[in-house]
Amino acid sequence: MHKIKRTFVVSASFLSVLLVTAIAAPAQTFDTLYSFDSTDGKYPYAGLVQATDGNLYGTTLYGGSGGWGTAFKITLGGTLTTLHNFCLQSECTDGNLPYAGLVQAGDGNLYGTASGGGANGYGTVFRITSRGTLTILHSFDNTDGANPYAALIQATDGSLYGTTYGGGANSCLYGGMSYGCGTVFKITLSGTFTTLYSFDGTDGQNPFGGLVQATDGNFYGTTQLGGDTNVGAGTVFRITPGGTLTTLHSFCAQYPDCSDGAGPEAGLIQATDGNFYGTTLSGGANGPYYGTVFKITPTGTLTTLYSFGGEDYNPSAALIQATDGNFYGTTINTVFKITPSGTLTTVYNFDGTDGSGADPFAPLIQDTNGNFYGTTSSGGAYGPYGTIFGLTVGLAPFVETRPTSAKVGKPIDILGTSLKSATSVTFNGTAATFTVVSRSLITATVPEGATSGTVQVTTPGGALSSNVPFHVVH
Predict the structure, then answer these.
(1) Same domain (yes/no): 217, 323
(2) Which string of DSSP letters, residue by residue, matches 306-336?
């Protein structure tokens, strides 16, 4: 048994070691749901995904019976099931070192990447069922990309899109050595693979983070290095589904102080205001080593919202926008909240000594029960192997539509909690036909006459609204 259930109440005095610029947060409830012990995985660098069965799914970078990482499922009560142990096949043809998290596609299966292994040793794209059956869809061969560190996304065309850190048609210098500059790729659910773009350094290199598809249909992302500044501190880019890339911003534009940030490891999110928000691992107003939170418009105007400093630094994960409209993220030792205008509050501080974990490098998710869940890459009850945690901040339950846009007459999934006795589903006020599949899943058809707006599910416990507006495609 590795389930650890502890409750911590965070007070202002407990957080006094943090930045003086941070605002003291009200009491929060923190639970360590699970501590890894290496046999079941270790070092979960990836975030979690909520699936339609109500469980959370993720990966660990190392550990498991093969020693080279796992894919797992965990209930909200903390029961963990290992779905796959990587590198059990000769020469790791099933992949190894799954750095990125998983995504659930419309077919109900989970898809992910392994940063190494495969038929050629440069990583894979794989599909895994909720019962653990793994299928390799693509093995990278370096010419088409190498070492994918970022999670995939499923686009509106049904295909998966992602990035590789290395490989591709062009070579860049990294640590004094020549290395592939990285790529953007597309792959269908059946495994048809297309390299959309190969970076060349001047337009960025080595994308560590994943992509986001914006409401304009294009994809937006970051590269950790490269760009048109003297130091090559990374970029923000836009790429069309056809592969036309535009560099929107090159970091460290104020060289040598890099006050606009440097080295973004995380991808972007598009907020409800239409702008993109992200983090840089380093740079900012307080020196080269701390990092920033930034906003960038679709046309490339960048605003630094917050510069980290002191004991709080190095945000390596993407932000999420929660149902309260604020953004939540992690640094090397904290969970933080930041308003769209840039006011930062420290929500929880990991000290690495109480079993709660340490080094939360992965992004958070907000479950439809309103709570946040995440991973730490080290710490926990069994040594430096990492944890899975939950964090309650008082936000109400909601429903989530998958996808977030569709034409009239198309079926969609609606995720939630306690949906078993739902009595109605409406799309911006227009009633829809629906089927209750389970307590965590409803399927509904976009009704005739529906307009873009909030999807609402009525249950005996009250009405649950969608976390983001649903867009009706005409």
Answers:
(1) yes
(2) EE-BTTB----S--EE-TTS-EEEE-SSEEE
